[in-house]
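Progress against Task 2.4 (sequence-to-structure conversion) is shown through the following example record, which the project officer requested during the mid-term review.
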Amino acid sequence: MWQRIQSLFFLLTILSNAAIYWLDLAVIQVGGKSFNFTLYKLQSAEGEVLYSSTMLAILCSICIVLSGVAFGMFKRRQVQIKLTQLLLLVQVAFLVAIFFVVDSTVTGMVQLESPIVDYGVGAYLPLIPFVFIFLAIKAIKKDEALVRAADRIR
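Structure tokens generated for the chain above:
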């Protein structure tokens, strides 16, 4: 299990998705006030919660759980490939949802002044697991081809 490169890719996917919980997705500035948008909420600099959402946290948790399950399916490569493809789809949905939720929240905050949105590291961090998931799919398919070639020789 650990000797396979896709296990490392799954572990890196889990770690990078887990890091999103502690990073700001965006900093929004409206009328001289600053607001931090995290995975769970939109919070003012004073600590007042203006918007609370668990959808992004649920999508991130689904990505982490799917990565862990796919990591454990090393003996059933065909199922692992399908599960990893589903993980890739959920990861893309998570990335799109981040920008959609932040933009819809910003348009809801529009007053007389236009808000300035500065996307943080947390908004772009889901791109890294996307690459690791893609590499894991390639490595699993390569292992499957190697096993099939060994079966033909027998």
